[in-house]
Design a protein that fits this description.
Elements: H1 9-14, E1 17-23, H2 27-38, E2 43-46, E3 58-61, E4 64-67, E5 73-74, H3 84-91, E6 98-101, E7 103-108, E8 111-116, H4 121-129, H5 132-152, H6 166-171, H7 174-179, H8 181-184, H9 191-196, H10 202-216, H11 225-235, E9 242-245, H12 249-262, E10 266-268, E11 273-279, E12 282-288, E13 293-302, H13 306-311, H14 320-323, E14 333-342, E15 353-357, E16 370-374, E17 388-399, H15 412-430, E18 440-446, H16 448-454, E19 483-485, H17 496-510, H18 513-522
């Protein structure tokens, strides 16, 4: 369960001014805040919810500990790691014990099978479903991706900053970057350009579209080559393992909160920001629900989505150039099924994760077509009472908000709609546990309206759907002095590594250059 950690609100509000105020305790906001505190700044995080973590928060019901969001982790159990989230944890000196594994289950139109990370096992799957020619194509794709993966990982995200100081921090990696100069330019384009030049087999193309969708919320023609190159560097190498934090996503959130507070930062829960204060065209602080104001000497940093951030700025203070970001395309939302079940008599080879695809013809982004199943208590029994399992089933970034818009959450219409739209998740889970409906001790259904309410997400959205090669993520800067942003609206990828990178880069940009360099030395990236 997430530790209910918060600082004394009265003492924080007693400060006339602090250095930085972060709006929202999502992973991006906590990463930014903890690093700023590590750099010696006075930092306060304002979180509207009673639980920190944003879309990654954890919650408990009747002894079952649920992850509200992310379920697939990698690169957290070793250092140095290419995962920006691990780089943040290393920088703030926090350990995150993990259980490692390498196999998950797939229920695809072609059939059911288990697959593993690493270089070879997927070739056995391809041989079974598509034959020897598909194996040849996959090996060729691995060969093509190898230099791109080296290029994508040549510069650790921990070295990035959005100011002239980047000349110093990035130049330390110039020899490595120069070796890959010919490939770096390919990383910003859509992965489909790489895929189209190598892969013809339909099974592989569908599989790659699926992986792209899980990474970015978009298929291969909208996902950057850099994102896939990171994945190939991390997943398809010898001896690789996937990770699951002991204690679930709540343990990850707690680690970031511990780092924040150990370095002198503060977290305020139940502190809903109603307005970003702008005076003389500069951001000066925030106003909380109830009227309390907190002033920021240096900046306010919003970890809310771009759409939700814009709602907090007074219209008269909102530059047209910033207001135009309201038109940022968005991914759809989620359906969630959180279950606490009786595990007696279940099959002994139950995996932690399963991916279910109903058909390929509709595309991976089609509503109710892709379903993910996470049973983390298979790896970490502490998440459920003895003899029980905790299960999280969800349709990732593909549930239309329009189906729910305007519904009263207390109405019979809403209850019926929940039952109807949850059916696809039940059916997916029945492919793995046929008698699942008779095993449930706890049953919770989440909808886009749940996302919208508890996560304060615009239309319950997963995040921006900015297509690689067509649009660009704006980074942390805004047209309003004293206001910066981090989180999924600022950095490509949407998922945990991307938002951690956004928070880290924002903090680095605000840090004195010598302290940033010292951090890189401390975590082993510079001698």
């Amino acid at each position: 369960m997430v530790q209910q950690t918060s600082s004394n609100t009265a003492s924080i509000l007693g400060h006339k001014e602090i250095d930085f105020i972060i709006i929202g305790s999502g992973i991006g906001g906590l990463s930014c805040a903890a690093l700023l505190a590590r750099y010696g700044f006075d930092v306060t995080v304002c979180e509207s919810h009673s639980i920190p973590g944003g879309a990654a928060h954890a919650f408990e019901r009747d002894g079952f500990k649920f992850d509200s969001g992310p379920s697939l982790y990698s690169g957290l159990s070793y250092s140095p790691s290419t995962n920006p989230l691990k780089q943040v944890l290393d920088a703030i000196g926090e350990e995150l014990p993990c259980v490692t594994y390498d196999t998950w289950g797939c229920c695809l139109p072609e059939g059911d099978f288990d697959t593993s990370v690493g270089t070879d096992q997927f070739c056995e799957v391809l041989q079974r479903f598509s034959g020897a020619e598909a194996v040849v194509e996959w090996r060729e794709l691995q060969r093509v991706m190898e230099p791109l993966a080296r290029a994508a990982t040549a510069l650790p995200p921990a070295a990035l900053r959005f100011d002239v100081g980047a000349i110093m921090t990035v130049s330390r990696f110039a020899p490595s970057l120069f070796q890959h100069i010919a490939d770096i330019g390919k990383l910003t384009g859509p992965f489909s350009r790489i895929m189209d030049g190598v892969v013809k087999d339909s099974f592989i193309r569908n599989w790659l579209d699926l992986l792209c969708f899980l990474l970015s919320g978009l298929p291969a023609d909208g996902t950057s080559t850099a994102e896939m190159a990171f994945m190939f560097a991390d997943w398809y190498r010898p001896g690789v393992k996937l990770d699951y934090p002991v204690g679930g996503s709540g343990a990850l959130v707690n680690a970031l909160v511990r780092g924040l507070e150990r370095h002198g930062g503060q977290l305020m829960l139940n502190a809903h920001v109603e307005e970003i204060l702008v005076e003389s065209k500069r951001t000066v602080g925030v106003r909380l629900r109830g009227g309390k104001q907190i002033k920021a000497r240096r900046a306010v940093i919003s970890n809310a989505s771009v759409w939700d951030t814009l709602k907090l700025i007074p219209q008269e203070a909102l530059p047209k150039k910033f207001q135009e970001r309201q038109a940022t395309p968005e991914c759809d939302s989620f359906m969630h099924l959180h279950l606490g079940i009786d595990a007696q008599g279940l099959r002994s080879d139950l995996a932690c994760h399963y991916i279910v695809v109903n058909n390929w013809e509709n595309g991976v982004t089609a509503p109710q077509n892709v379903v993910l199943v996470s049973i983390p208590s298979v790896l970490d029994p502490s998440l459920a009472p003895s003899g029980k399992h905790v299960i999280h089933v969800y349709t990732p970034g593909s549930e239309p908000y329009e189906v729910w818009q305007g519904m009263n959450r207390k109405s019979e219409e809403y209850a019926q709609q929940k039952q109807l739209r949850a059916e696809v998740m039940w059916q997916a889970l029945e492919r793995i546990i046929p008698d699942i409906r008779s095993r449930c001790d706890v049953t919770l259904v989440g909808t886009p309206l749940t996302h919208e309410r508890y996560l304060r997400r615009h239309r319950g959205s997963y995040g921006p759907a900015i297509q690689a090669g067509i649009g660009f993520f704006p980074g942390s800067g805004t047209p309003i002095p004293g206001l910066l942003c981090c989180g999924d609206s600022t950095f490509p990828g949407i998922g945990l590594p991307a938002v951690a990178a956004s928070g880290m880069t924002t903090a680095n940009t605000l840090a004195p250059l010598h302290k940033h360099v010292q951090m890189l030395q401390d975590i082993g990236y510079l001698g």
